[in-house]
Amino acid sequence: MKYDVRHEAGFRYRTTATVIEQIAAETAPRVQAVTGLALPDRPRIRLVTPRGYRRASGDHFARVLQQDINDLNPWQRWIDAARQEQRDRDRHLRRSGWLLIGAETITDASGTPEVLFMPRAARHAGLLGPWLNVMVAHQLTTVAQVHTQPRLAVLAGTLMPEQRRDIDAQALMIVMVGQGLWAARTILAERGITATGGRTSRRYRRLTAAQPGPVPDGDTPTSQQPHEIGAAFVTHVEQVAPGAVNGVWNDLTRTPTTAELFDPPAWLVRTGITA
Length: 275
Known about the structure:
Strand order of the largest sheet: 1-2-4-3
Mean pLDDT: 91
Number of domains: 1
Number of helices: 12
Radius of gyration: 18 Å
Strand content: 5-15%
Number of strands: 4
Largest sheet: 4 strands, mixed
Helix content: 55-70%
């Protein structure tokens, strides 16, 4: 398998791009074997600047919003609220919010999933060492999920979750990130890698100290509350019925409810996997 690692983050991080290429070459086959999901040909990882991230992510969420509008035909006030949310997010990212985002999987204009990774943010968070293995495995799992079920890009990123009454978008997102973290831990355990973080910058520490709760984005030790809930769910399901989580990507009606995330046996019974 070939990889498309694009270095757009500046001269300082050229070595990081090489490291990520090496990690991707070693990790991608294991992601497919461990999860049972297929990756697309030449999975793409882009090393980007904060400005590049903001532009690419903003374009992605603009497409998500347009798909929300097409699917839901919502009232104008819902559209206005979603657009205001986008503006608020961009304003937050322009200031210092980008520091809290290590990596994210989005889709480009053609619907192809790609990983955005900000090495500058990872440097502030102390994550340019062994933790890169977690990031690559986690995000490649998300790429495989979206490659399997393209609607995940919209449903997990919807700006109108209350209007999508046919699915619990928050629970869907938690299962996605949970499978990513479970896969990363499984792969790192196979390879005997301990993913510890390094020293964080003063700016990063000051910003995270001001957060009211866990940092919402990224593969960092301070942002794993939803990841841990999802990983615990996936771990339980994999022990009872290996591969059963992938049924969610093939049939979104199997998405767990929020209550089932904390009660995996109930989900297994509802979906007919166990009696």
